[in-house]
Amino acid sequence: MARPRQFDEQDAVDRATDLFWRLGYNATSVRDLGDELKLTPSSLYRTFTDKHTLFLRALDHYRATESAQAEQQLDADGRPIRQVLRDWMLWLVTCPTDGGEPGRGCFVVNTATELGTSDTQVSRRTEAAFEVTRQALRSLLRTGRDRGELPLDLDIDATVEMLFTTVLGLRVRERAGHAPASLATAIDAAILILGPGPARPS
Fold it and tell me: Which residue, among 194, 192, 110, has the nearest Cα to 160 in the 3D structure?
């Protein structure tokens, strides 16, 4: 007799991530999860303990996936810093993680907006994700300053906060279905605040 197919736990986390991302935490029921993961409630609880635990795993999975992709996007690799920054910000609002459809926004930002600081475990994860973004921006700006592409007197910390706030706003606007052209205009305006680029040789 053939052995039953083994349950793929990581695939279940992938599917749960997609569902929570689409519906949000509160709107996703245990029944929804069971239907999506093809699991009975007892199997769901036996594997993941409860909905909240599964949500934390989904959030961690999304963060790891997005961080890896963002790291690739923010790799200067000889490109002008302003171009790297612009391409990354455009990617955030036009190329969703894991191939999800446009208009979902960012799972982390959506979660922070929905749950705020009411859930300590969730808040700790969203703040950690935000800090990763800040650190990536800080590193990129320092590289640009060291290369002479950005002004030597650029206030790195203040610029990080400005760009980070812009990124969060962009992702909320993407979630609201605002036109990509409008978002691109906002991105270009934010990059102009970095000051003039290096002078071209005459």
Answer: 194
Q: Which of 62, 91, 61, 99 is nearest to 74 (CA)?
A: 91
Length of the chain: 202
**Residue range 160-182, pLDDT digits in tens:** 999 999 999 999 998 888 998 99
Q: What is the pTM of this model?
A: 0.85
The phi, psi pair for 201, rounded to 5°, reads -65, 140
Amino acid code (one letter) for 67: S
Say how far apart CA 112 and CA 104 lie, in whole Å.
Answer: 14
Residues 160 and 138 sit within 8 Å (Cβ to Cβ): yes
Distance CA(101)–CA(104), nearest Å, equals 7
Instruction: Decide: helix, strand or coil at residue 49.
Output: coil
What is the C-alpha separation between 144 and 46, in angstroms, rounded?
A: 50
Alpha helices in 38-106 (DSSP H): 41-48, 51-73, 81-94
Alpha helices in the chain (DSSP H): 9-23, 30-37, 41-48, 51-73, 81-94, 107-115, 120-147, 156-175, 180-192
Res. 202: pLDDT tops 50: no
Q: What are phi and psi of 150, to 5 degrees?
A: -120, 155
30 and 51 Cβ atoms separated by less than 8 Å: yes
